[in-house]
Specification:
about 260 residues; globular; 8 helices; alpha/beta; seven-stranded parallel beta sheet; three-stranded antiparallel beta sheet; Rossmann fold
């Protein structure tokens, strides 16, 4: 697990976007796993900027989103379909048929989940999976106690998740969908590389538990310690509860020095 600590959110987003850009320049038909929420917005903005100013080409890219709420239509203002269209898809040259987002209805969900998993395999697997992290350590909508081998399925959301998402739907948690369809932890772990992003002091404990704590289903993100290509990109505030901050910074500095010599 590589931990990259940046001074600001803007800089962590730039680092993550550069990793994706460099991978796309090497593989034009890159398969991306995408996340929603406030954390990846800066990454998407940076990628849009690269598309507009550098001509970064997304025409052969395929994407699979982590999750979607159950019971709201795709055109709902707070659906993840709308989120992705607003923050990324409408501003780059990716074909609509290449963008996959879990369905927002519980009808036929078991069959849909199987098809979603099959579609990922048919695409050759996810090359880079972008992840945020909940305050309780969840990734996707894999809440604490989720099986670390789980696959795409419907999950009931915890009260803390409902509270975190309430501002997007209204003043109380009663307005938030109570279930979501999500890639499983096992599905996420199948990605060739995972980028875990976090910003702000409110995520500091979750990051410390995920990076330096025991591997446990109570902190689903902790399983990323077992992934051979996990990169954790965080700002100083999100790193504030880590014990080995100085070491992580030294590792990153040494890596950058080696890369500069290679250039």
């Amino acid at each position: 697990m590589e931990v990259i600590i940046q001074p600001t959110y803007k800089k962590l987003a730039a680092v993550a976007a550069k990793i994706i850009r460099d991978a796309l320049l090497k593989k034009t038909n890159l398969v991306l796993g995408l996340a929603t929420g406030s954390t990846p917005i800066g990454v998407y903005e940076a990628l849009v900027g690269m598309h507009k100013t550098e001509g970064l080409d997304f025409s052969e890219v395929t994407t699979f989103n982590l999750d979607e709420y159950v019971g709201i239509p795709p055109n709902h203002p707070y659906s993840y379909h709308t989120f992705m269209e607003t923050h990324l898809f409408s501003a780059i040259n990716i074909p609509a048929e290449n963008c996959h987002i879990p369905q927002s209805t519980a009808v036929g969900h078991a069959e849909f989940c199987e098809r979603y998993e099959a579609a990922i395999l048919d695409a050759g697997g996810i090359d880079i999976q972008v992840l945020g992290i909940g305050k309780d350590g969840h990734i996707g909508f894999n809440e604490p106690s989720s099986s670390l081998g789980s696959r795409t399925r419907i999950k009931t959301l915890t009260r803390s998740t409902l509270e975190a998402n309430a501002p997007h739907f209204g003043s109380t948690i009663d307005d938030v969908p109570k279930m979501a369809i999500t890639m499983g932890v096992g599905t996420i772990m199948d990605a060739k590389q995972c980028l875990l992003l976090a910003s702000g002091e409110s995520k500091a404990v979750a990051i410390a538990n995920a990076v330096e704590g025991p591997i446990t289903a109570e902190v689903p993100a902790s399983v990323l310690q077992m992934h051979p290509q996990t990169v954790v990109i965080i700002d100083e505030a999100a790193a504030s509860e880590l014990k080995r901050v100085d070491y992580y910074k030294q590792v990153y500095a040494n890596k950058q020095e080696l890369l500069s010599k290679d250039d």
